[in-house]
């Protein structure tokens, strides 16, 4: 059981699919894990349970940060909890594993969500507002040989995520995928999704995928790639 303050994302199948991919990794006392968009801290706790020695959890939501802190205490896990906008508070650090379950539900517009809970779901018009930032910013946080584990819906374009991460020099593999029923966010937006032809008429399931993007470089310096 996890403590979850109002407005914090309730762990769903995407969380647990990502947790399974995280648990399958070889984590040890020296492994440094970053949990981005931590929500309740479910993935931070999973990382600790899998053997990681250093776990940092980050979320822009104060309620999420408090929820993660409470759950860490209740589970007797040592987790550093930071409130911040994605990587801003950890830019100087390097991690062996970065795990991220960002908001990726397509929204009516790119404006800031009005309702607190919508902030845990909404990813802008195409659902990629946070996904694109993660693809651009997290590679710089990876230690040599480190891996980003990222979950998203295929409605957001897995190929675009793959291309952005490969452009940064990472090897990208889809390590898990599953068809799941729509959650509350998509269920309330089916007419909008059908109108945009993001889903078929009557479609009420989506495919979620976990991508593993691994740094293959042996050096510690990472250069941004630009298209020519």
Which structural traits does this protein have?
228 residues, alpha/beta, seven-stranded mixed beta sheet, 27% helix, disordered C terminus
Amount of helix: 25-40%
Main β sheet profile? 7 strands, mixed
Uncertain stretches of 5 or more adjacent residues: 219-228
Report strand order across the widest sheet.
3-2-1-4-5-7-6
Order of helices and strands: HEHEHEEHEHEHHE
The fraction of residues in strands falls at 15-25%
Q: Overall mean pLDDT score?
A: 91
Q: Helices and strands: which structural class?
A: alpha/beta
Total number of beta strands: 7
Distance between the termini: 50 Å
How is this structure best described in words?
The structure is a single chain. This protein has 228 residues and is an alpha/beta fold. Helices cover 27% and strands 25% of the residues. The protein has helices at residues 13-23, 42-49, 62-75, 129-137, 158-167, 184-187, 190-195; strands at 32-36, 54-59, 80-83, 95-100, 142-153, 170-181, 205-215. Strands 3-2-1-4-5-7-6 form a seven-stranded mixed sheet. Helix 1 runs parallel beside helix 2 (42-49). Residues 219-228 have low confidence and may be disordered.
């Amino acid at each position: 059981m996890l403590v979850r303050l109002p407005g914090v994302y309730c762990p769903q199948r995407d969380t647990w699919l990502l947790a399974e991919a995280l648990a399958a990794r070889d984590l040890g006392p020296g492994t440094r894990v970053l949990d981005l968009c931590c929500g309740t801290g479910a993935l931070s706790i999973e990382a600790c349970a899998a053997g990681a020695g250093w776990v940092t959890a980050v979320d822009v939501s104060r309620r999420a940060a408090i929820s993660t802190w409470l759950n860490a205490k209740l589970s007797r896990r040592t987790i550093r909890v930071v409130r911040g906008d994605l990587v801003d508070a950890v830019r100087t650090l390097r991690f062996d594993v970065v795990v991220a379950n960002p908001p990726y539900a397509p929204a009516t517009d790119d404006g800031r969500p009005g309702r607190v809970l919508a902030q845990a779901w909404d990813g802008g018009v195409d659902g990629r507002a946070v996904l694109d930032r993660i693809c651009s910013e997290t590679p710089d946080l990876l230690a040599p040989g480190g891996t980003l584990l990222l979950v998203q819906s295929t409605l957001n374009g897995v190929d675009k995520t793959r291309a952005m991460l490969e452009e940064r020099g990472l090897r990208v593999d889809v390590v898990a995928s599953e068809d799941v029923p729509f959650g509350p966010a998509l269920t309330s937006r089916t007419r909008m999704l059908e109108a945009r032809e993001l889903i078929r008429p009557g479609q009420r399931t989506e495919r979620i995928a976990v991508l593993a993007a691994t740094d293959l470089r042996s050096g510690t310096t990472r250069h941004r790639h630009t298209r020519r």
